[in-house]
Amino acid sequence: MKAGLVTITLISLIYTLLIFAVALFAHHRKEIGRSIIANPYVYSLTIAVYCTTWTFYGSVGRAATIGIDFLMIYLGPSLTAFSWFFLLRRIIQISKENNITSIADFISLRYGKSLWLGALVTLIAILGIMPYIALQIKAVSTTFYLISGLRNERIHIPQLDAELVLPIGLLLTMILSLFSVMFGARKLVSSERHEGLMAAVAFESLVKLLSMLTVGIFVTYYLFNGFTDIFSRFHKFDPELFSHLFTLGSTSNDLEYVPSFTMLFMSMSAIMLLPRQFHVMVIENSDERHITKAMWLFPAYMFLINLFVMPIALGGILTSGSSIGADFFVLSIPLDTGHDVIAIIAFLGGLSAAAGMVMVESVAISTMLLNHIFMPVIVRFTPQAWFPDLLINLKRLGIFMVIFLGYFYYRIVGESFMLVNMGMISFSAASQFLPAMLGGLYWRRGNKAGAITGILLGSIIWFYTLLIPSFIRSGWISAHLFKDGPFGIKLLKPTELFGMSGMDLWSHSLFWSMLFNISGYIICAIVIKQNERERDQLRKFMGAYESERGSRHAETKRLSKPVTITKFVNLMAKFIGEADAHQAIFNYIGDREIDASGNVSEFELPNLKRFTEKTLAGSVGAAAAGAIVDSFLSDMGSRMESVYDIFSTVRTSLDQSREALYVRLKASEIINRTLDLQIIMDDLLVLLLKEFKLDVAIIQICNADGTLVARSYQGSNRKPINQRHWFMESRPYYEMTLQDCRAHFVNDTKLAGTTVDFGLTIAEGIVSCAYIPILREGEPAIGVMSVFSKSFTGLFTEEFISLLASLTGQLAQAITIVREMEAKERERSEKEEAQLQHARVLRDMEIAQQIQISLLPDTAPQLSGIDLSGRCISAAHVGGDYYDFFQYDENSVDMLIADVSGHSVGAALIMSEVRTLLRAQVTSGLNVSTILHTLNNQLYEDLTRAELFITMFYAKYNSATGRLSFANAGHNHPIIRRTNEAACIDLDAEGLILGVKKSVVFEERVVELQKGDIVLFYTDGLNEATNPEGDMFGTFRICNMMGDVSHLPAIEIVDTFYNAVTEFIGSNTLQDDISIVVLKIL
Amino acid sequence: MLKRLRYKLLHHLQLPESWLIFFIMGIIMMNFPFMSIFNKPETIFGFPLLFLYFFLGWPFSIFVIYLFTLTVGNTDDKHQEPR
After folding, report:
1. A71 touches chain B (CB under 8 A)
2. Can you give the pLDDT at residue A828?
3. Has residue B3 been placed in a domain?
4. Helical H runs in B1-83?
5. A586 and chain B: CB distance < 8 Å anywhere?
6. What is the span of the domain harbouring residue B41?
7. Per residue in A931-951, is it b (16+ CB within 10 Å) or e — as a string?
8. What's the whole-number mean pLDDT along residues A563-581?
């Protein structure tokens, strides 16, 4: 009984819709950010895309004809799974890092982004996968015919009495292509995961497993009574076949016989290298941690799906009587025993197995096709706005192409091979990538030439010994080649190459292809050197683990001409669309520093370039991306050029190289050796010139007024620095460096010409230069160190600049210390000088004081009838007070008291002049007013010039008459105290202060003194003496005191007054000189 | 006792080299000289010898990977915590 065409078509349709729904659901979940794909179970199920209709139908077919060795195809991957934790993880890490889109991308990236290698791998993958896709189409269309009851493509439609041709294979191809396009080529970015597709694949994996288990349990436990029942019945049925099926390589020398090792080896490599396996395991991997679970989940899956293969195979032979049509026992057993439901389940399982494989395979291959065959052509054209559309449609076209190629192979070869054997051709092709892949991951010497040679040789052998024979068998190519070899050369027979006979087709092909492949790879790798680009990539691949340990990729390239971010964005937009390009650059810039004009620093540019390449690689593959960016840059007139490696030895991660450490050490030695700045600066520059092959180095330090002055100049052809020196052209840089305290550099003076005129500098032969501020951390710059090179452009790397900056930091420290020491020294000597000066002045003052004191009379003249005494205390050391006595005879004496304004030495000098003038006059016996008048006349000029004044009271006493005649030049009025009177008498006379007017008339008065009278002459220091409360001593207090002390001798009265004043002012100091003269009439 | 055994086993499996040992063992056990031990048309309890060898050896190897991933997974978690 058959299920019928309509029923099975409907069921297939419904099932297809179901898968579609699953895919849509997963896509929706991803959109809202809750992916159902990102877990290890789904990941393991997607890897199970490995189990195709080959597994589902072919395994049983092989088990029923050849025997148990079909298991090798599954034991191999199971073994490989052991290595995943390291191998797969590493591949995934590298792929994520570089936005790898396919296995071709991966291999070409490792070997210097080689376009040729990528194209070669793609070509082999397409050719190699052709039989595999054909296998799927064959399986599904055959089973469709089986279950629907059709025998061929023609359907007789009774009503119309016509025949409808129903090409199931073609229809299936169409449907699968559409489905793959819908889920696999929705977006251009191929490094992005296809959640919908993966969900569909995982779902299909689940369906095929359940379906296989259902059929297995049905056959084993429903039709028979378990494993042992089938085994024992079969043993009875055909003991010879039994032992043949359950042993390896015992009997057959048939072409179909594949030694178990060949199968094991091919399957071990196929699980990693088949484009679809690489795609699901690497590109679609959402989290590295899923690998650990998949390592045992995937083998477990294979174990389960193969568990019932043997029973079904044996059961099939038992029920049908022979192994004819064993390839489809899974379907035919339920059909023949009349269990349609089981049959439909089996059919759906097979459909799932085929659909999953074809979809993933075609998407993976079309990505490769686009990136490695189409892109290298496209990048030769100028990018256009419609490029994104073109690219995505090319990718869709690629999917159709891949599936239809499979379909054509099926039409040509389809019927002549068993399912498994068709698959083996693909496995063998995939194995050709193994040497390049493993070598690429673990062998540093592996190079592009080796990879291309190896893969090319291996695949030629594969093509000749495996693909060609498959065509011959189908009769498409003349069998003549098969028998006699090309041109009748027997040695070149495709199946017995170089006369190697007695081997099966697969082992023979594998042996020769691997021999040529591996030896080609190794020989070229040893003989030919890697180019720079390859070495660059090698670091990325081999360094994948090192980067985890926090080491930093040291920049060795720079862009010869700066390119702005906008230009990169525009470039990206042309390939991946505007929105995606902006999103990408937005993510990239994130926390990076960019300056006001939106430019990144020169050191950042190579990173930006690499980022652009990586982003583009996600859509067009690494090789094409590299080509795109390179051609873009060359259009801009910019290119990547090697940075002169200042530290020639290998860098050790983040640490300084030995040279850098050496230079630092030397520099600190120089700085600590001496405190002489000139020596430090000269030695430091000499060190730089010597160690870094620089040509000129200059240190400029800011003066006190902020201008830069060259303090040290080392290097070739020294010239005196003046305004026309070439070195002055860099002035804008010096100022900029001083101002923003950052290092500036010109890596190619020829290119800097637009902003700063470097005419003379270039003429001098300078090709690159750098300006480093001399400053201590967090302080303003105190100078600029400039270095110039005549030999290397691009000399100044980030590391070099930071090394120079650290040296200037040390220098700044030294300069600061020396400056501080100098400042301290200066301060100390200034202080010493001041003290010395002060001491000198003090000494002069003391001398002046002594002289002044000596000018005052030592003792008062002794006259009968009077007691006379005077004394002066200066407030400052030398004062302007003066008093004197002149005695003519035993009866008359002159007394004067004067006060020169101010207390300077000037006052003292005037005072001595007054004394000299007076001494000259007094002998002439003039009267007092005349004396003052004359004195005023004489002193006027001097006083005016010195801006000084003198107050003076002059009195003449005659003891015989008792008359005191006196004149006053604005001086304090002397006070007379009489014994019997309570009040005091002021002695006043009209007169102007000396030195105010040229000619002054002084009034002369006379007073008669009586016995007991005390006359007190004083200067204003006495009455104006102030206590801390602000009260003045005052004339009232003087008068009272005179009453109290009238009984004392004159000298004691003077003393009493002094004591009183001292007591009165208390803690205050004397503001003015005090002079007191006391005349007591006895 | 069982706990200690388990601990010891897991501890030894932690070595990164252990996967290589299993890998090589697997290749040896699936190749010519070794395979010939089981490559005989005999049955045990009705099961062909080679069938039994594969279908018992395979799950055992899967179990070994499982144990290995268990220990590796554990250490992995530990490594990630301090990050």
Report:
1. yes
2. 93
3. no
4. 2-13, 18-29, 32-35, 49-80
5. no
6. 25-73
7. bbbbbbebbbeebeebebbbb
8. 75
pLDDT, residue A184, reads: 74
Establish whether this prediction's ipTM goes over 0.90.
Answer: no
The candidate with the shortest Cα–Cα distance to A577, out of A393, A370, A391, is A391
Q: What's residue A637's pLDDT?
A: 61
- The three state secondary structure string of A68-119 is HHHHHHHHHHHHHHHHHCCHHHHHHHHHHHHCCCCHHHHHHHHCCCCHHHHH
pLDDT tens-digit profile of A754-788? Answer: 667 777 777 778 888 888 888 887 788 888 888 88
Whether the predicted pLDDT of A255 surpasses 70:
no
Is the confidence at residue A1049, as pLDDT, over 70?
yes
Assess A81–B contact: CB distance below 8 Å, yes or no: yes
> Which of chain B's residues have a Cβ under 8 Å away from the Cβ of A75?
26, 30, 54, 58
CB contact under 8 Å between B69 and A293, yes or no, is yes
What is the rounded distance in angstroms from the CA atom of residue A611 to the CA atom of residue A375?
A: 19
Angle, helices A565-576/A387-413, rounded to nearest 10 degrees: 40
Of B47, B61, B65, the CB nearest to A228: B47
Q: What is the pLDDT of residues A888-934, one digit of tens each?
A: 788 888 888 998 887 777 888 888 888 888 888 776 677 888 888 88
Band (pLDDT 50/70/90 cuts) for residue B82 is very low
Domain-embedded: residue B55? yes
Q: Tell which CATH architecture fits domain A658-824.
A: 2-Layer Sandwich (3.30)
Which residues of chain B lie closer than 8 angstroms to A307, CB-CB?
A: 55
Distance between CA atoms of A862 and A860, rounded to whole angstroms? Answer: 6
Q: Which residues of A567-578 are buried (b: 16+ CB within 10 A; e: fewer)?
A: ebbebbbbbbbe
State phi, psi for A868 to the nearest 5 degrees.
Answer: -120, 140
* Domain boundaries, given as residue ranges, for chain A: 5-422, 554-642, 658-824, 857-1081
Cα separation, A738 vs A734, whole angstroms: 6
Nearest to B26 among A79, A231, A232 (CB): A79
The dihedral through the CA atoms of A795, A796, A798, A800 has a sign that is positive
How many whole angstroms separate alpha carbon A493 and alpha carbon A480? 10
A5-422 topology per CATH = Sodium/glucose cotransporter (1.20.1730)
* pLDDT > 90 fraction of chain A, expressed in percent and rounded: 6
A232 touches chain B (CB under 8 A): yes
| Domains held by chain B: number | 1
Whether pLDDT at A472 is above 60 = yes
Per-residue pLDDT band at A544 (split at 50, 70, 90):
very low
| Distance linking the first and last C-alpha atoms of chain B | 35
Q: Which residue has the tokens 């079969």?
A: A234
A 541-560: CB under 8 A from B:
none
**Are the Cβ atoms of A289 and B76 closer than 8 angstroms?**
yes
CB-based contact, A299 to chain B, within 8 Å: yes
Q: Which fold has domain A857-1081?
A: Phosphatase 2c; domain 1 (3.60.40)
Average pLDDT, chain A: 80
Average pLDDT of span A982-1010: 87
Determine, for residues A248 and B39 on separate chains, whether the beta-carbon distance falls below 8 Å: yes
Per-residue pLDDT at A561: 62
Q: Is residue B42 part of a domain?
A: yes
The candidate with the shortest Cα–Cα distance to A199, out of A188, A184, A214, A211, is A184
How many other C-beta atoms lie within 10 A of the C-beta of residue A403?
28
Helix (H, G, I), strand (E, B) or coil at A1068: coil
Question: In terms of DSSP H, where are the helices of A731-781?
Answer: 731-740, 749-752, 759-763
Does residue A442 belong to the interface with chain B, where contact is any CB pair within 8 Å? no
What amino acid occupies position A452? I
A41 touches chain B (CB under 8 A): no
Paired tokens of A485: 């070899």
Q: Which pair of structure tokens corresponds to residue A61?
A: 């077919």
Q: Would you call B69 and A292 a contact, using CB atoms and an 8 Å cutoff?
A: yes
